[in-house]
């Protein structure tokens, strides 16, 4: 079926007329000026087009109505959370409908006995974490965008975050979900029990599928007890390669930190220029480590991490005794990307390499920056090898844009050469499709296409993305 919005029902209605007859007027947006704020995510230079409409449903049944109308008209369906994505996965397609979940933001249940929560996809990550904390529980996945990004978007991209080095990523916490399928059915996948192996794990298949296999309308996630307070260890390094060696040393020492983040001086300066936090360190690179193991064992692990930093050439290191200062450093880590955006367009990489390859990959990124005359700042979930080189260009500089895109492609090539992957947590979307084709064998690509064809037989679910 085609994607043309002029395609008619048997009764002669256009897609827009069909939506208008079934969706409340306050849920249906057709004004181009208002739609403009819903039609793309934060990915720099990822293409997008104007859809027929944006729908802001309040119920799963309204989502189902939209999908069924799009099936009847052969129109694309693109889902959107908070628009914080960095790969173009939520970018609108011409002739289609964007389903925006900002109005489906209810925390429907927090079950302290079963340690689970049931949420709508528009719930902001930090809002869920705060609500769980009131019950002595914790939802671990914490992407840097946690103050703004939504659970639906986190599930769609299998988001990671700062503490995933120890506690895993979104897929490790999704028990089940409600989904509108590519055939317009409203179904439940997964379970609420601690164990369950009945049939294929279709819920897990949906995690990370970026809206290409169905529309998630509710998510059930497992929770953990609240943790003991973390100890923060800070190290300054005079080169990004030295910091990378410290990351390798921490892993070689057998430590599993609750966070191990890298942030370079360029990022700290950008945060200070924006928020005046006074955090710019007299170092080229800062490593922020955290240990949450309780008691004396945790104290010993913190000392071991400090020793790893020092053996790797730290110019200064310390275990923070000021919780407010420690929290401010991690806040700066979360603010790095939006702070750099103020300087110009930022093309964000999201490669992940083996921990042993972190120093070499960081060295290659430095060389790529010089070779392509492109300003590259660096932040990273360094503890698990997930690196985020940030390629910054001046406004309205076409030559700089082309150089940055060439550097972006070369970084992907090098990550794959070192045994890594093209995306650790941001998803493939539009920007990483070429890299994914390099990473996967033709036989595996064919498996993806077979699954896509089976679950989205009309080809309407976020078409042209991922694979």
In percent, how much strand structure appears in the residues?
15-25%
In angstroms, what is the radius of gyration?
A: 23 Å
Total number of domains: 4
How many helices?
15
Find the CATH topology of the largest domain: Uridine Diphospho-n-acetylenolpyruvylglucosamine Reductase, domain 3
Percentage of residues assigned to helices = 25-40%
Write down the overall mean pLDDT: 94
Per DSSP E runs of 2 or more residues, the count of β-strands stands at: 19
End-to-end distance? 19 Å
The CATH level-2 architecture of the largest domain is identified as: 2-Layer Sandwich
Low-confidence stretches: 1-10
So what's the overall shape?
globular
Profile the largest sheet. 8 strands, antiparallel
Q: Strand pairing plus helix content: what structural class?
A: alpha+beta
The CATH class label of the largest domain is Alpha Beta
Q: How would you describe what is shown here?
A:
The chain is built from 15 helices and 19 strands. The chain is of the alpha+beta class and 467 residues long. It has four domains: 15-102, Uridine Diphospho-n-acetylenolpyruvylglucosamine Reductase, domain 2; 107-225, Uridine Diphospho-n-acetylenolpyruvylglucosamine Reductase, domain 3 (2-Layer Sandwich), CATH 3.30.465; 228-333, 2-Layer Sandwich (Alpha-Beta Plaits); 344-459, Alpha-Beta Plaits. Strands 12, 13, 14, 15, 16, 17, 18 and 19 form an eight-stranded antiparallel sheet that branches. The model is unreliable at 1-10 (pLDDT under 50).
